[in-house]
Every structure is written in structure tokens, then in C-alpha cells.
Design a protein that fits this description.
about 75% helix
């Protein structure tokens, strides 16, 4: 008995509720925010819409000359270029260890290493603030055992961002680890067996089999890590509020401060779309570089 064919537009009606929600709660707010970035919408315009003025590209031109934005962009790039590769490397190392054939209770280790990802940042921040305590923190205790001077991790402008990077890596590496484990498990075992027969060392197997076969996974992990790290907000907001001396101020945190502390919503929207263009440019460059390698 043949199944009756459904009308061509049936799929659309099944998708319509979800599409409507996406349009209403995503595309329309994004479009409104884009329009907002071309205005001087602030707290005065919020109370009296007649004060709202169209300023064209003035917000973006102001952004280019804003020293605070340059500081935030420099801090964000530092976080991305240092923390991103370290996070990917730690994730790959953890995946290799957990996925090793000699490791038992792999499911338990995967769950334990993934726990920081699903733990709330506020709880993590409380623990890490104790670890970073300039007098009683565990890290300074270890430095004291080694005969080194203690460090004011969150109070020193030179050490505040490395401290944020260390905490962010610990919190986020478990997500990429799971993706790398999936990539490792998709590599045919016969490749390693053939390499062993040919006398290839463990390093050569890793270099000539594991890394090339993980290339698509690397691209995906690198792109999502870069996108996530460019949106750095929660860590400095909870740990340092952007200080000391704006050393941990990120572009996303600057956007929040301009929009919800000073109510310069038009300028904050311009910051948001500038960050979007930066992320889009970085993603396109990574994908093109990967295609050239292929």
C-alpha cells in the first residue's frame, strides 16, 4: 500500500511555528539593534522619543577614535590569541588521554572533566577567587614553597588577564575535549595497526595519522573557540569588573557598560556590530586558510 504524498507546502506549515519564533525573537531584535546603532538613543531618548536622532555613522566613527575601545579590543585579542590556542591544546591533550586504549572508566573521566562546562560561573568564580587570593590563595602557597614572591593575581594589571585566561581554559576545555574524542573515535583503527607494523613510533602515528585525520575537527573547534572567546564577558564581569586599570576590559564588557550602565544604547549597538564584523572576518579567514591547506 502506497503512502499518500503530502502537499508540497506541508513541511513549511510544520516549520512555521519555529520559524516565527526565530524571526520574532532573533531577526527582528537584530534588525532593530542595527538601526539603533545609527542613532544616538540614550536614556533621554528612552524617556522622550523626540530626542532620538539619526546620526548615521557617527557612532562607528566615534568608536574608531575611542581609546577605551582600543584597550578593550587589545585585551580581547590577547585573550583570543593566547587563551584560544591553549584551550584547544589542553582539550586535545585531555581527549588523547581519556581516549587511550589503556585507560579504564573512560565514561567516568569524560563526565568529571566535562563538569566545569556545566557548572555555573558564579560558583566557579568563588572557588577561583580563593585560589587567587593574594595572601591565602593556593597558587601563592605553591609559589611560597618554591621560594618565589607572591602575586596579586586579580589586582595586578600584568597578571589579571593571565589569571582570567587560566580560569577560562579550565572551565571550557571539557566541551572541546568531547568533540575531539568524537573525532578520535572516527579514525579507523586499521591505520594505527598498519603504522605499528611499519615500525612507526607513537609520535609519528600522532603526527601523520591523528593530526591529519582530525583536521576537520580542528577547524570546527578552532572556529567555535574563537567565536566564544571573542565574546569574553562573564569571566571579567564576575572576577574583576574589567579592572584593574581596564586590564581585563573586553569588547563585550564595554558594550554592556555603555548600554546598561551609562544607557548609551546607540553606541553600545555600534560596539556589538563591530564585534560581529570582527568575529565574522576571523571566521572567514580561518575557513579560507583551511581550504588552501586542503
Amino acid at each position: 500500500m502506497k503512502t499518500p504524498l503530502l502537499p508540497a507546502n506541508t513541511a513549511f506549515w510544520f516549520l512555521a511555528p519555529a520559524l516565527i519564533l526565530i524571526v520574532v525573537f532573533f531577526f527582528l531584535p537584530v534588525a532593530a539593534s542595527l538601526l539603533l546603532s545609527f542613532t544616538d538613543f540614550d536614556i533621554y531618548a528612552l524617556g522622550d522619543h523626540e530626542r532620538l536622532r539619526f546620526v548615521a555613522l557617527d557612532n562607528y566613527l566615534r568608536l574608531l577614535g575611542d581609546p577605551l575601545f582600543r584597550t578593550a579590543l587589545k585585551n580581547t585579542l590577547y585573550f583570543v590569541l593566547v587563551g584560544g590556542p591553549l584551550s584547544v591544546a589542553v582539550s586535545l591533550g585531555a581527549a588523547l588521554l581519556v581516549n587511550h586504549r589503556l585507560v579504564r572508566f573512560k565514561g567516568l573521566f569524560r563526565s568529571l572533566l566535562f563538569l566545569p562546562v556545566v557548572t555555573t560561573l558564579v560558583a566557579i568564580a568563588v572557588v577561583w577567587r580563593y585560589l587567587y587570593h593574594p595572601r591565602y590563595g593556593f597558587l601563592n602557597y605553591l609559589l611560597g614553597l618554591l621560594g618565589l614572591d607572591t602575586v596579586d593575581w586579580l589586582g595586578d594589571p600584568d597578571w589579571a588577564m593571565p589569571a582570567i585566561i587560566l580560569m577560562a581554559i579550565w572551565k571550557n576545555f571539557g566541551f572541546n575535549m568531547i568533540i575531539f574524542i568524537a573525532g578520535l573515535q572516527s579514525i579507523p583503527v586499521r591505520l594505527y595497526e598498519a603504522a605499528v607494523i611499519d615500525g612507526a613510533s607513537t609520535w609519528r602515528q600522532f603526527r601523520h595519522i591523528t593530526l591529519p585525520m582530525l583536521a576537520p575537527t580542528f577547524v570546527f573547534v578552532t572556529v567555535i573557540t574563537m567565536i566564544g572567546y571573542f565574546q569574553l564577558f562573564a569571566e571579567p564581569y564576575v572576577m574583576t569588573q574589567g579592572g584593574p586599570a581596564n586590564s581585563t576590559l573586553s569588547v563585550a564588557l564595554l558594550m554592556f557598560q555603555e548600554g546598561f550602565r551609562w544607557w548609551n544604547l546607540g553606541y553600545a549597538a555600534a560596539v556589538a556590530f563591530t564585534l560581529f564584523l570582527i568575529i565574522l572576518t576571523g571566521t572567514v579567514l580561518q575557513l579560507r586558510l583551511r581550504r588552501r591547506e586542503i
